[in-house]
């Protein structure tokens, strides 16, 4: 039987709430497909920092690094900060230290949800933002040597090496989606090449990588115009590689299109490691109220299974991913689930319970 080790990092706030049901469902899908998973829990984050003075000890990092994949929830708390005032986020350390350059943020709408756009095409969205996750405007988040009483700086830095990897990843993703009958065989570079010289270079690098993929259509769009199109006609997009901060902002718009932060999964993928986590943070405003939507965490688990399947040519993991995704889709399609975030009353227990029933084939009374 194929076996994988998973480092589980529940983190802070609602991260600790959405992790247990997501783990249970990933495990159940794996069991059904003859796949063996073992989970190691690794504490880290703001609450751990408050208790121990260290947000992410080196031994914990090494333990996470040794796993086949890392399943992380949410970390950080506005009231627990480093002495320089910045928030605690071991997930950022993981991205940089493990070189997880591709922040994969799919926007796939689920049937049955009351979504913000009314055009019928927005009810069947399926595109992916690929956020560069280790450079860009977030390369130096803690200030610059030129900072003084008058000026504060953050340096935007991109490298050709990382851009090339990001673009190759995006073109391959588009090819793979096309092979699976998804997407439009289209990669759109989202940039601000008319204002920032670094972005102009990124666009040139993008088109030189595009030459290696003559079967995929390559195009570009300014980030501000892309924000407008995400609200006006998001169905035109397929794969969208973009700079770190642009990706951060656009993926929150994409989460809105899907029904909120609780719906949006992600994967941070590098050449040898990967972290899977929901796009949302620790959401201290709803902790302990049962309102957290576990769907984003569950779908991040599905992405983790797909990654393991692809990396290790493991059909069992692909089957498990397909089963889990289909259980989520069926639960939303048949139960008119309206999460708290969308003004409804479905919370953690109800949503995970309904998805669990679909996964186990329980026949529910209507
Ligand atoms: P960060 O600053 O790290 O992004 P945050 O918790 O301040 O984290 P978001 O995660 O972006 O912010 O979430 C914004 C709001 O969306 C939260 O305050 C919460 O009300 C809502 N939210 C986020 N995740 C969920 C979820 N899984 N289920 C329900 N509501 C959520």
TrEMBL record:
Task: Select a single GO molecular function from the record's annotations and give it.
Answer: metal ion binding
Isopropylmalate dehydrogenase-like domain location is 5-355
Q: Could you tell me which SUPFAM superfamilies the record lists for this protein?
A: Isocitrate/Isopropylmalate dehydrogenase-like (SSF53659)
Pfam families, per this entry? Iso_dh (PF00180)
Q: Which cofactor does it need?
A: Mn(2+); Mg(2+)
At the top level, the lineage of the source is Bacteria
Keywords on this record? Manganese, Metal-binding, NAD, Oxidoreductase
Query: What's the protein called, per UniProt?
Result: 3-isopropylmalate dehydrogenase
Give the originating organism: Enterovibrio coralii
